[in-house]
Amino acid sequence: MFPPPLTADAEALLARFRAAGLRIATAESCTGGLIAGCLTEIAGSSDVVERGFVTYSNEAKAELLGIDPSLIARLGAVSAEVARAMVEGALGRSRADAAVAVTGIAGPGGGSAAKPVGLVHFAAARRGRDPVLERHVFQGDRGEVRLATVARALAMLDALA
After folding, report:
1. Are 99 and 44 in contact (CB under 8 A)?
2. Tens digit of each residue's pLDDT (9 = 90 or more) over 60-100
3. Of 1, 8, 94, 121, whose CB has the highest number of CB atoms within 10 Å?
4. How far apart are CA 109 and CA 92, in angstroms?
5. pLDDT tens string 1-45
6. How far apart are alpha carbons 78 and 31 in whole angstroms?
7. Contact (Cβ atoms closer than 8 angstroms) between residue 82 and residue 103
8. Alpha-carbon dihedral angle through residues 70, 71, 75, 77, given to the nearest 10 degrees
9. What's the rounded Cα separation, in Å, for the pair 91 and 97?
10. How many CB atoms lie within 10 A of CB 69?
């Protein structure tokens, strides 16, 4: 289902987290669960993947992750601040030791000059530490943007192991 390089990255990440005794949560908007899906494609991943939040709608972000709707109204769902709130919500509402969050515009529509198609905001954090935030604009069609987002999210998680 996933390209072999992504599967290999997921397998290596899981091994590192398993060796460290750490568990992962994901909070996903534009990927719709693909990060968790890539991780759980690997047999035995249940000892590392604690849970995944698919928060595609703004309401889901508020209800499942506890994000203040006024933050989304003020800055938009695709923002560094919302990505940060998503990762903090994932850690706060799980038993995971580390989490990654993504929110973006996969396309083909929905972009603007300020927020183009391919824009993705990332946040990754270990419990008790400040999140690492990144902003990327990926090229390609919807599928390519989403897979590039998964790859970057896995790399950010791997850095937390």
Report:
1. no
2. 999 999 999 999 999 999 999 999 999 999 999 999 999 99
3. 121
4. 32
5. 899 999 999 999 999 999 999 999 999 999 999 999 999 999 999
6. 13
7. yes
8. -100
9. 7
10. 12
